[in-house]
Specification:
The chain is mostly helical. The protein has a domain of 42 residues. The protein is built from 9 helices and no strands. It is globular, with a radius of gyration of 18 Å.
Length: 161
């Protein structure tokens, strides 16, 4: 699929939210609300970590450990942590946490799934856990985030007589 086809498949709300994040401003901002930004771009030169990163993203619903990630990468845990930090600027577990929150944000924006199901899909365990980490990282509850970023249909305007 080329970029034009991808662009044409985006809904206006999705497009607006992505542009707003890139500009580091929310699409709609009630007073005192935190800024929203997607995960920063990893540093260049991942030393071949792309396969393990992709594997981890595909398995966010599991309780992944550094040892499991290292085994999947064919490295010792210590070497994985070192290379991971060099490539991403963070630790494997912090990166996993950020990926789980990113998946939760995406699901909150694009689905009507209940918080309990979203927490399971993201590997957060329970809705309470998701809420705790979401408030701590994003600054609002998952449902407040959903109300802010989930696309609202445009109002229908009628012609004045």
């Amino acid at each position: 699929m080329n970029i034009r086809e991808k662009w044409n498949r985006l809904t206006p709300a999705t497009c607006a939210n992505q542009v707003a994040r890139r500009l580091v401003v929310p699409a709609h901002r009630p007073g005192g609300q935190a800024q929203y930004i997607e995960s920063p771009v990893p540093r260049a030169g991942d030393d071949g970590l792309a396969p393990v990163l992709q594997w981890a993203i595909q398995n966010l619903d599991l309780q992944l450990t550094v040892a499991q990630m290292a085994e999947h990468a064919g490295l010792s845990s210590r070497t994985l942590v070192r290379r991971f930090h060099e490539a991403t600027g963070t630790t494997p577990l912090r990166w996993l946490h950020a990926q789980r929150l990113a998946r939760a944000r995406h699901l909150l924006e694009s689905t009507d799934l209940p918080a309990e199901r979203i927490s399971q899909i993201c590997g957060m365990g329970t809705a309470g856990n998701l809420r705790h980490h979401f408030i701590r990282s994003v600054g609002v509850t998952p449902m407040e985030y959903r109300r802010t970023f989930q696309g609202q249909p445009a109002p229908v305007l009628s012609a004045a007589p």
